[in-house]
Amino acid sequence: MIKSYKLRRNISNAVVYVILAVMGIIWVSPLVWMVLHSFRGEGTSAVHYLIPKTFTFQHYINLFTDTTILNFPRWFLNTLVVAIFSCIISTLSVLMVAYTFSRLRFKARKPLINIGMIIGMFPGFMTMIAIYYLLKAMGLTQTLPALVICYSAGAGIGFQISKGFFDTIPRALDEAATIDGATKNQIFWKIILPMSKPIVVYTVLTAFIGPWTDFILVKIIMGDARDNYTVSVGLQLMASQQYISKYYQRFLAGSTVVAIPITLLFLKMQNYYVEGVTAGGVKG
C-alpha cells in the first residue's frame, strides 16, 4: 500500500515537473531568441534559422553611438528620469494613503476607501483622452513632466495591498509610541516604514515598472516629439515599416538593454521580501 502510494506520488510529481519544464521553455524561448539575434552578424531583418551563424557586438555599439536619425540614448535617459521621479512620488503617495486608511479613523474614511476601490476597477486608458486635453490646456503636452504627473498623480488609488499589509502590524506599537510622545508623522516614518520593507519594495518595483514599460500614454502625449520619446515608443518606431530594414537588430539589442534595469532592480531588492515584518519591534 505504501509502495503504491509512493509510486502514484512520484508519477504525479514527474508529470507536474514535465509540464512546468515545458511551460518554462515556452516562456523563456522568445527571450533567448531575442538576445541571440541581437548579436547576429547577418544583416537581414528576417532569417529562417534559430541560431545565428555569426555573432557581433556592433548592433549594441551602433545603438548608443549612431543617433543621427533615431536617438536611443536620449530615449533611455528620458525613460530613466521619468521612471525614477514617478517611482519616488508614487511610492510615497501609496504608502501615506495606505497608512492613513489603516491607522487613522475619521468620518469620510470608509466612503473614500469605497470610492478608491470603485475607481480602481476602471482601466486607466479610459481617461487618456481627457488627460491629454487637460495637459494641452496647461501647455504640458509633449513634455516629460507631463508623464511624471500622469504616472504619479493617481497612484494613491492603489493603496489596497499596502493597507492590508499595514493592518497586520500590531497597533500596540503605535500606542506605545504615542504614549512616549510621538506624533502620527513620526510613527509613520520612524516605526511603520522601517518595519515594512517587503511592502515598500513591492510598491517601489510596481511604481518603477509601470512608467518603464508604458506605451499607450507616451504615444498619446508625445505625438511626434521624438526627442521626448521613452524606450517603448522609440523601439516601436525602430520596428516600424520605415526603419525595420536598417534597425531591426538594433531593435532587438534595445529590447535587451531595456530589460536590464528591471532585472537588476528586482535582483537587488528581492532579499528584503524574506525579512520579518515586526522583527525586533515587540520585545517579550
SSE blueprint:
Elements (H helix, E strand, L loop, with lengths): L1 H37 L19 H8 L6 H32 L5 H12 L7 H10 L6 H10 L6 H8 L3 H9 L4 H9 L4 H17 L2 H7 L8 H8 L5 H26 L15
Helix pairs in contact: 1-13, 2-13, 3-6, 3-7, 3-10, 8-9, 10-13, 12-13
Write a compact overview of the structure shown.
This protein has 284 residues and is mainly α. The chain contains 13 helices and no strands. It has helices spanning 2-38, 58-65, 72-103, 109-120, 128-137, 144-153, 160-167, 171-179, 184-192, 197-213, 216-222, 231-238, 244-269.
Description:
This protein has 284 residues and is mainly alpha-helical. The protein is built from 13 helices and no strands. Helix 8 crosses helix 9 (184-192) and helix 12 (231-238) packs antiparallel against helix 13. The radius of gyration is 24 Å and the shape is globular.
Features:
single chain, 284 residues, mainly alpha, 13 helices, 68% helix, globular, disordered C terminus
What is the global morphology? globular
Supply the helix-strand structural class.
Answer: mainly alpha
Annotation, overall tally of beta strands: 0
Low-confidence parts lasting 5 or more residues at pLDDT below 50?
A: 274-284
Beta-strand residue percentage: under 5%
Radius of gyration, CA atoms, in whole angstroms = 24 Å
The helical percent reads 55-70%
